[in-house]
Amino acid sequence: MFQPVSSQTDFPAQERLVLAFWKRTRAFDRLRQLRAHAEKQFSFIDGPITANNPMGVHHAWGRTYKDLWQRFFAMKGYNQRWQNGFDCQGLWVEVNVEKDMGFKSKRDIEVYGVERFIRLCKQRVLNSAAMQTEQSIRLGYWMDWDDPDELRWLAQKIVEDPQQVITLKRDGRTIRGTVEQIVGMLGTPELERSYFTFSDENNYQIWAFLKKCHERGWIYRGEDVIPWCPRCATGISQHEIDTEGYKDREDPAITVRMKLRRYDVSHAEWVSEAAREKFERAPGKFLLAWTTTPWTLPVNVMASVGPKLRYAIVRQVHKDGEVAVYFLGAKTLHMLRGEYEVLGEILGAHMVGWTYEGLFDDLPAVIDALKRWEDLHDGRPFEHPVIAWDEVSEEEGTGIVHNAPGAGPEDYQLGKQHSMPKIAPLNEDGYYLDSFGPLSGKHAHEVPELVESLLKAKGYFYRHEKYLHRYPHCWRCGTPLVYRMVDEWYISMDELRYHMMEVAKQINWIPPFGLERELDWLRNMRDWMISKKRYWGLALPIWEYPDGTFEVIGSYEELKARAVEGWEAFEGHTPHRPYIDHIKIRHPVTGLIGRRVPDVGNPWLDAGIVAYSTLRYRTDRRYWERWFPADFITESFPGQFRNWFYALIAMSTVLEGKPPTRTILGYATLLDEKGEPMHKSKGNAIEFNEAADKAGADVMRWLYARQRYDDNLLFGYNALNEVRRQVILPLWNVYAFFVTYANADGWTPNEALKADNAAWSLAQHYALTTLDRWVLARLAETVNTVNEHLLAFDARPAVLAIESFIEDLSNWYVRRSRERFWGSTMTAEKQAAYATLYTVLTTLARLIAPIVPFLSEVMWQNLIYGVSVETAQDNGGAFSVHHQAYPEPRALTEAERALLREMALVRTVVALGHNTRAQSKVKVRQPLNKITIVANDEVRRAVLAQRELILDELNVKDIEFAEQESELVTYRVAADARKLGKKLGAAFPRVRETLERMPTSPIVQAVRAGQPITVDGVELQPDEVIVQPVPRAGLIVAGEDGIVVGLDTTLTEALIQEGLAREVVRRINDLRKAANLNVSDRIETTYKATPRLAAAIAAFADFVRGETLSLSLREGEPEDEHRTSDTFDGETLTVSIRKV
RNA sequence: GGGCGAUUAGCUCAGGUGGUAGAGCGUCCCUCUGAUAAGGGGAAGGUCUCAAGUUCGAGUCUUGAAUCGCCCA
């Protein structure tokens, strides 16, 4: 017996029962044991999820793929590592801890204490990891998970007292250490389970990588002007800002007038001689320059013009009577305020070399900088020059750009080219340094008014306005960035990028455009900035000496050997700040003492190293060789070309020159149902927990798995509901149908049927019908398709094939087989039906297991062990569906292929038959005499083979074939454009028109006879003409693809009586249902009917009794209980039933 | 500013090598029903973004434009 299955199941609740079953039976551990010694292995490396917040539905998308292929290969018999990863270090964790603590700046962290701050970061990571672990388990993701409670316990301990000694148990082993040490060992061979990128091993492996880079001379300290977050007080790398940094912002834009000192207008073209004289007479001549970053004006050094642009020379008389002449782009005259007169024009190239009065040459910092420049240039006085810059445009501003090489990245490069002084105005919090006069101590974003008033006082101000533009913001805290000149650490890409491109080409990128994207990034990327002036992260293993030289330390052991100071303070701690900062080393030659640079590392180093660190590259090289490279990795595409994929490839290229993985699967972005990004603040975000509770993880997983990789996924409850209704419910209904009838019949599977390969020998043991053989062939076909595509990491076609099979199973096999299951005695045919459907369901359960692990498990436990998942137990060995072997592909026989074709034709005929029924308005319950079919020989053979099925489906008594020339159809003759268009060329339209006007009969006859016909003097071969039957108008017919079906709607008294009898049956069965009778309960039936109806019941009494399981059917006064009365087709019926 | 992609039914999308437009969802109508939170049949709905070109024939090929993505400056 099977456990009864309700068609009204709460799927999310059922999933929780499955989770409990897996937990109490340790089903995942059993799977690992079963595959532990497998020859074949599948190496998946998890891209670490940021352990900072709860998991989102977008994470669940990728995690579905990860679980799907791990389960698939496990069922295929592959051994695996099953290691999840958490990304732990970096600014995002710091920012959230700061938020929790109410910190406003780095100073707050210093005051609070770096050591305690780091503890809070670790705590946050461990707590987030615990939550994400629970959510992943809820998704059905099988991994070697940590116990979430243990993680939370460690989180608690790490803030309480990291030096407390604790013990953890693993498989009977005891691991002992301080809390800090234990946390630093998470994911290593001792503790196993999820890896954490803050582990000692991960950090030291990065050290080894950086050391190797240094040995090749690729690590350098560079000065550059970079985007800088004044709140986080750190540089934001190019990788980060490009991804999601830009937001609209309204800024004050200021136009300044720079007073010319030296100029030469000999190349100018004047409007008139008078204009030229006006120019000469004007007391002040100015360049107009426009900027949206007024805070950079105090460190202005030069101005640039487009050498190919034309500049207007205009004269204005201001309200105070001042007469001034301005130079500005000829297309930017709208920037002027008030009336003006154009005096002439001059080419930008002819302005190069002019000089102007510095805007803030009186500030101490500027005086100092210019003095230093003069000292370096033999005492030559500095003059602010006009230079040429091709990037200058007239689209915004005045066509003249003010340049501050200490405060803008392009300006910095220009300044370098022209050997200009570079003046950096801001400290790391975004405030002006001392020696900036009235500006000192003011924040960059609060000085526009002050700058404006200072400019006014000097006579350099022209106008201001508000300006809306895209401005870079900190991707973590949202603060508008500034540009700051700083020293950062870089890995040079000059040489590495080409090696990386070679490595990237060896990887199978899905979808294929991934490779192009990655190569594009590699071609264009600048050197890799690896430093961040923060606290929580990889301690960069760079020690600097007072003379500016530096060394990179490659390991714990090397550091210990080189340490001359501070080792006691560090020993026993993880390699993080502040302990690591105590260590000093001595230069072997100069004897100078080196200190560690205070910077921490770019977090993508942490994630990029995992193909080495988690595979024990440093500690167990044979293990690494076994599992490297990965067979498969997958993450969302956006961002990863420059982040994880990039870092993985970079580090693997440096360490081994090999690809870290064979296949990279990338997928697009998850959006809401309207196609908009999900944001908590917008209220359109769906929490993972909420979706899992409402829709169920299986439904979510199906939606994810059927998504096209390169399309954005529009995620929402409508989409989920569609999956549930179209896939999950039909499958569940078939399963429920099977269980209900098998139980009613007391049918149970024998051991051979339970065995995996039973499907292929069924025919030898059971009297299979055509329909049975058909559904088994469809199943085999589906198994083949699914295997093929899953092996190629292409989930969608596999999922669609299963959907199509479920549709066929539900709407054809089961629907057409129902009556076989209804029969009251166990016939051989019925045995065959059970055996077939049982085999289909057990095979299907295994086939869909990687996609919907819960549903498949529920079916499996009941179908194999006859238990509900609530009470299911460890039955020894491979007790879970996920322990089974995946259904293997096999070649279909010729007979099977023919059967599939035949059934497809039959279904077309049936669809057409339903169509004629609908047109005729004669409902299907009313039997009719016959249908007439016009079709070719192949269709005729198919129809004859499936004659009974068609009769029953369409409720007709007979099928008749009409001759081709019949009253049902006429013919349409058309030219085959594909063939004749090429052959006839320009003559084709004329021939076609003539052909279609000719009488059809002779042409049809000729084509049938295989004879050529002549049209317009052109001889056409039979295969160049298309003959299509067309239903004759006025008849009830339906046609498609050369098949035409006509319906004979003549009603005889016998047919009418039969139709009435069916109406009676339906009403009695409605009563049975209303009375909550079991499908096998027998009843006694009493009825009263109008005479014509009574005659019909009498004539079809056996039929009525059989269909309603009535032991007796008698005319009389119906009883009060279970009674109904109804009028139909002009007849009235009152009927009652009673359970026997 | 450069590169790539897209633009087809109300919505989401299919449409090798040119031959007279399809699916799912939604809407409406009909129908079946002991799988019933299902099932079946049908209808309406499209100047295939626009323009020019090649061709007997263009959703499909070429060029240009517009709009929208993504990537890079």
- Average predicted local confidence, pLDDT: 89
What is the number of strand segments?
A: 44
Our measurement of the CA-to-CA distance between the termini, rounded to an integer number of angstroms, reads: 24 Å
Return Rg in Å. 41 Å
| CATH fold-type name of one domain | Isoleucyl-tRNA Synthetase, Domain 1
The shape, in one word, is globular
Relevant CATH superfamily of one domain: Isoleucyl-tRNA Synthetase, Domain 1
Named at the architecture level, the CATH assignment of one domain is Orthogonal Bundle
**pLDDT < 50 stretches:** none
Helix/sheet category: alpha+beta
What's the story with the biggest beta sheet?
11 strands, mixed
Strand content: 15-25%
Please give the CATH class of one domain.
Mainly Alpha
Residues in helices, as a percent range: 40-55%
Output the number of helix runs: 40
Structural summary, described in words:
With 1140 residues, this protein is α+β, with helices and mostly antiparallel strands. Among the domains are: 163 residues, Valyl/Leucyl/Isoleucyl-tRNA synthetase, editing domain (Isoleucyl-tRNA Synthetase, domain 2, Alpha-Beta Complex); 58 residues; 187 residues, Isoleucyl-tRNA Synthetase, Domain 1 (Orthogonal Bundle), CATH 1.10.730; 149 residues; 87 residues. Helix content is 42%, strand content 20%. It has 40 helices and 44 strands. The strands form 12 sheets. Strands 8, 9, 10, 11, 12, 13, 14, 15, 16, 17 and 18 form an 11-stranded mixed beta sheet that branches. It has a 5-stranded antiparallel beta sheet with strand order 24-23-27-26-25. Helix 22 links the parallel strand 29 and strand 30. Helix 15 runs antiparallel to helix 16. The longest helix is centred in the middle third of the chain and has 29 residues. The radius of gyration is 41 Å and the shape is globular. The mean pLDDT is 89.
